[in-house]
Amino acid sequence: MKRMLPFFLIVFSSAAFSDEYYEFYKISCATQINSIEVTRLGFWNIGDVIWPELDWDQHVKSLQLIENKDHLYVFNELYGYYDKQVLDFDCGNFQAKITFDKLTREPGPVGGGKPVRMNAKITIRSYDKLLASAIPLEQILRIGAYQSESVQYVVACTELGCRDDLYAYDGTVTTKTLRGIKKLKADNQRQPTR
Q1: What's the confidence (pLDDT) of residue 39?
Q2: What values do phi and psi take at 120, rounded to 5?
Q3: How far apart are CA 86 and CA 133, in angstroms?
Q4: Percent of the chain with pLDDT over 90
């Protein structure tokens, strides 16, 4: 029994101080340089910031404050919230639209039965030209577009790599383009190193 006591102390103390990871999407919109960028970011152990109390309404107010001040949004997570069907961004020459589904949380003590934003997708346009079409945010680490002096650049990054060679891109970035990033990275891994 004496040997079991340290085991239980370790198990219960680590459970009491377990790490929590919170994921956001930083939306940067610059009208002067005509650009938009969405970057996925993660933060550890910030529960005191987004859960000031164990109250769903206070939690939502905290997330809304983070959105308004820091342009950090929660999508595809049960700790997020839902308030409308679409978010629109006007960034100079670029317009972005993030759409998502409304999912209801399971019943529970905090936020049970409340809706959240799930299956978020981004579409980016430059006036009449479609640059990115319904890209699932869960597939990207970063996506963006900007206008140089002569051409428009589109950048798309997944966990396997980036395609920043999409400048003056004649097509539309789609999930097929993202699969191309995966294939490109896999092909690069098979090549011998020098």
Answers
A1: 95
A2: -70, 140
A3: 15
A4: 50
